[in-house]
Amino acid sequence: MAACVDVGNPLVSRKVCVIGAGMAGLAAARELRREGHAVTVLEQGGDVGGQWLYDPWTDDDAEDPLAAAAAEPVRVHSSMYASLRLLGPREVMGFSDFQFVPARKSRGGAGAGDNPGRDPRRFPGHREVYLYLRDFYRAAGLTDAVRFNTRVVRVAMAPPPCRGGPGDALKWLVRSMDAGLWKQCTDDQMAEAQCVEEVFDAVVVATGHYSQPKLPSIQGMGDWKRRQLHSHWYRVPDPFRDEVVVLVGCGDSGMDIALDLLAVAREVHLSAKSVEAAMTPAMSKMLARHANLHLHPQIERLCDDGRVVFADDVVVFAADTIMYCTGYSYSLPFLDTEGKVTVDDNRVGPLFEHTFPPSLAPSLSFVGIPRKVMVPWFFEAQGRWIAGVLSGRWTLPSEEEMMRSVEEFYRARELAGVPKAYTHDVEPHKMYELGEKYCDFPRTEDWKRELMAIVSRNTSDDMETFRDRDDDGSDHVRRCLQEWHALAEHQTQDEEDPAAAAQATVHSSL
């Protein structure tokens, strides 16, 4: 598949709607505006940040919490819990020209140490990421582009009278409404609600994929009378004090929430698909340190008297809560493409390079679909590619070529034994080459890739202490880290002078 080429034609400005003002949406909006497009960002929350905008409200008081979790879409977007900290260091989580340096100034001019709202740690908590994204939003000059408290309820191809221009280009009808009103409406009321309809030349979907809970199917779930919830609704450990809690799933969130609960719960039981695979050095150390933590295979069945029976016939008597740390599903309930883009077994497709649907490109695109990628770098690369294709700077392959590439990718994954649900888990070498291949966006620096490999190794070794380890690997990584911190001194995030922050850059050529 040939890479896109700069065709040298006069650039065209498009009217573009970006859905979502989280990390992916902000990255896309900045690149679109840089390319000269007229950008409108529709955000259902009251501020930027997406997932990183912590929402203490949950729906766990619903009469049927599992039904609330299964409803599409859920009414609460963020899945953040209060204690969550980054799994990666701030040095690798910054925008290419606006690095994630510890904030040194507040509105009053105080240093970060004097500002209790900021977190200078290398692996900061979720609020620091939100504040960083807010700083970026201001520094990038996007304050006039985002429309808050606006829920998109339908995106569909506009009828022919709305089209026009070269080749009678496809346009998109976007219907939105007040987000507060949307939360109160039933499906029947939605049709009668007061909505705003607008027509755009292009739509970029950047709504994330950590909001719609994915639930397993376990015998007895419907009959089990005690508390069941998905980790999407978890916020703080206090409601589980002195309880026996069973967590289904041993991924990063399952292990992290288990550590959060251990201080208050009487017992915490982790259920894994494979005990052998779950028994990493990190898990072994957690079990050795905490006598009230237990690891089990999958749950065989739930009994209406509170018993939990595991596949090895071990029984936990009188469990109080089952929490499903079983991940999330892609959810695009607002998108009507007449079947040209679907979500099937957690595969959004067909998408060329996880970004463009061949039959609707380039007027419809997606930023942030892939998982296990370095962010926001990957989002910037996608945003620049989309912006350049829309302006005419670069051309996409033909629809037939893109579709053939997608089908070849699907076949290769199937032959490799990768389930369809993991279609968007991107291989590292594919992640790093996307920007370079399609839009002249430089690869992320080699020392950052090496640093992330070290952090991944440390996480697998000890989930409780990896954030505090002083292990930066090779002399090359340590030298580049020193240079990064020295250059970062020239970047200011002073909220009183966002224009200066926009001019300050940290070079990406270390």
UniProtKB/TrEMBL annotation:
Cofactor names: FAD
Keyword Flavoprotein: yes
GO function term, MF aspect, one: NADP binding
Low complexity: compositionally biased ranges: 499-510
Entry EC number(s): 1.-.-.-
Main location: membrane
Keyword set, alphabetical order: FAD, Flavoprotein, Membrane, Monooxygenase, NADP, Oxidoreductase, Transmembrane, Transmembrane helix
InterPro entries: Claudin_CS (IPR017974), FAD/NAD-bd_sf (IPR036188), Flavin_mOase (IPR000960), Flavin_mOase-like (IPR020946), FMO-like (IPR050346)
Membrane topology: Multi-pass membrane protein
Protein family membership: Belongs to the FMO family.
Biological role stated in the UniProt entry: Catalyzes the conversion of methylthioalkyl glucosinolates of any chain length into methylsulfinylalkyl glucosinolates.
Name by which UniProt lists this protein: Flavin-containing monooxygenase
